[in-house]
Amino acid sequence: MGSFTGSVSPTTSTTIHDRFAKILRQETDIRQPRVLHPVENEGLRLLILENISLEAVNAFKAQGLHVDHYAKAMSEDELITKIGSYHGIGIRSKTKITEKVIKAATKLLVIGCFCIGTNQVDLKAAASAGIPVFNSPFSNSRSVAELVMSELVVLSRQLFERSYELRQGLWNKQSKGCWEIRGKTLGIVGYGHIGSQLSVLAESFGMRVVFYDVINLMPLGTARQVESLDALLSEADFVTLHVPELPETINMISSDQLALMKKGSYLINNARGKVVDIPALIESLQSGHLAGAAIDVFPSEPGSNGAPFDDQVNPWASTLRALHNVILTPHIGGSTEEAQRMIGQEVSQALIRYIGLGSTIGAVNFPEVDLRAITEEAGHVRVCYVHKNQPGVLRQVNEAFEPYNVEKQYSDSKGDVAYLMADIAHVSPTDVTHLQETIRRTNANILTRLLA
């Protein structure tokens, strides 16, 4: 991994102070908290892609960080070319951070996913390189839940069909095949933050709610958990999916599962594109077994707005587009002003806290470690040490700490990676570089940073 070089300018110190003053004031330590900055500093650079909220971009800039902001995603080749000069990157769902990209990211400290999912990042490769990944697992839950509610009504009333016909000049007022959602059964697959919020909204519309999840959960309202996915599919009038993309969820809805659904029922997928076998769904819609579907996510998605969604993206795209009573939307589940603002705030603050304080609370691929604020007394240094999870490491590090007073220390591990934070007192300016290099020479070192 690359390191910071050079000295800290007065301007940098001022902006770092502003960045962390609010956070540090909240600490319980009765002494005046001290502002931290990297001992080595070459000017931190962030690459922000996919039109992430300007509030997040401005939050970074307000802390004196250099930000390059792009509206589009970048391909693997583009990232490999550019990533080497950046210390942090912010993405949404279209940009893929692969192992090749991570190997090219010689200075990268942190990755921010400004969305719920993190399957677009090679989490294991990032952790092995000492790079924590942060996301926003809850901020767009309401937006997705409200989209599902709108889709329930639009599908059951055939609104897209009637609207299209009228735009073509055809007046076709009819009630056949159009239903109220009141009294119908909604089946929720995955009862997490989105599924549980949706459950409450659906009951307020007078729907019955059943849900399936791999763990036993406390239902909200009068919702009822069923013992299996098959049981849910056979009971529900509407089935909505809210699960992550995992090996066990890929094509979890295919021909056999669709056959179990009620004739005339509806399927909604705002989760991940590979969860549904789209050719099998098309067959079920064409046969009339399903009355309709709403699809917001796809196995392959265009990289930017304005790009075509055709058979070159997915070989069945034109067939799916031609079906009646099928709602197709371009992955807009979390695309509301409120959700993007909250996501921008949450993820940007997580990145700022890691860069400046070393905190990994909320990281999805990394040990979660944090310490209360370092104090104002001179000679205090915070050590942030990412290392291989192997025996004997703490002994080596504590030997390096032996000449100093260790005020507080905490470490944890996750898989093959461990992370230690320690606040060391009585470190003279001339000792800082020696201390850092001593820790970096330990045989388990992945990344060592000192904040002072």
UniProtKB/TrEMBL annotation:
GO biological process, one term: L-serine biosynthetic process
GO molecular function: (S)-2-hydroxyglutarate dehydrogenase activity; NAD binding; phosphoglycerate dehydrogenase activity
Record's protein name: Phosphoglycerate dehydrogenase
Domain D-isomer specific 2-hydroxyacid dehydrogenase NAD-binding: 152-333
Taxonomic lineage: Eukaryota, Fungi, Dikarya, Basidiomycota, Agaricomycotina
Assigned keywords, A-Z: Amino-acid biosynthesis, NAD, Oxidoreductase
Organism the protein comes from: Rhodocollybia butyracea
Stored Pfam families: 2-Hacid_dh (PF00389), 2-Hacid_dh_C (PF02826)
Pathway membership: Amino-acid biosynthesis
Keyword set includes NAD: yes
Ranges where the D-isomer specific 2-hydroxyacid dehydrogenase catalytic domain occurs: 47-365
Protein family membership: Belongs to the D-isomer specific 2-hydroxyacid dehydrogenase family.
SUPFAM superfamilies attached to this UniProt entry: ACT-like, Formate/glycerate dehydrogenase catalytic domain-like, NAD(P)-binding Rossmann-fold domains
Keyword Protein biosynthesis: no
